[in-house]
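Researcher: I'd like a structural prediction for the single chain below. Treat it as a standalone chain; there are no partners to consider.
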Amino acid sequence: MVSNLFETLIERKNTGAVKWDYTGEIFGEKDLLPMWVADMDFPSPEPVQKALTERIQHPVFGYTGPPAGIYDSFTGWMKKWHGWDVMKQWILFSPGVVSSLATAIQAFTDPGDKVLLQSPVYTPFFDMITKNGREVVNCPLTLSENRFTIDFTDFEDKLKSGVKLLLLCNPHNPGGRIWTIAELTQIGELCHKYGVIIVSDEIHADLYMPPFKHVPIASIDERFAKLTVTLSAPSKTFNIAGLQSSVIITENEEFRKKLKAVQERNAFHGLNLLALTAMDAAYREGEEWLTQLLAYIKNNIEITLDFIKRELPDISCMYPEASYLIWLDCRKLGMSDDELRKALIQKGKLALEPGPKYGPGGEGHVRMNIGCPLPVLMDGLQRLKKAFS
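Model: Treating it as a single chain, here is the predicted structure.
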């Protein structure tokens, strides 16, 4: 049974895993349980492992192009999982979503231009804007009934200020929100009104928890499709982040030309052969594995929320509508971010992502990765309790 596979404790130390081998260096203390960086402690799907094994048994690893069926496997996946008819010609490959963010910023803006984001949000959104010499314009998310919402008055005011590009995170990281069709429509209408290009990071799209369902913003309206670049990847879904494979999708031919020109300027000419092999196998044969994975993660979510409600009532959790990441609001504990960090590391021996990394609105929060076998999760929850006892 696949579910039993998710229970298996896999030793990842001494494999170069950032999560397990670099935690001490990053957090300044040894012997911490790492529940921070967003990869899972589960084996990747068996069809992916099999495809990689078969490929490396061929002794030549020369220059490699996309396998013939990879476009069909990806477009078929997008149609079945997200109801979106993606054409082969809309697709560009990229080593990762963060690389794609940088490529889009370079393709569609000039140094000094304004780029909009909504904090708290995935840290590289800030990094890719500032490291490329653009100006961050922030439209902070607001909290309503323990869910992130968008202040559309502020959003429109920011767009009016001369913003060229919106970096949209859907599903949202770290909050796990799936923006509704109504919210996405309002975003699209306003961006269309003010001529703002949308770059939508949809890397967690496949990890939605029913009854919630992800909708790509480019699939809602032809006008939105023409102004949107969608970033997707098998890395979070199938736990193959180390293979560095992702996809850029845009219906807009002019956008594709600009994106490709930047990629060529930066000497990117395609994915490595194992990235292509894994991507093709994952989208072609990974559905059964993912279906069972999502059931396992959903159970982990319920256990986590129940434990924290019972044992740590001063901490509140957002229910992640997509992903295996949980955003914990620790502000009622009355501790500074430095005190939270020290308690987690020194008392709990637990490594979580500190909220301030995600920008304004992240203060007093931490992000916890529960994509792990249940025994590891229970260990982590007890450490969390110990940290704040």
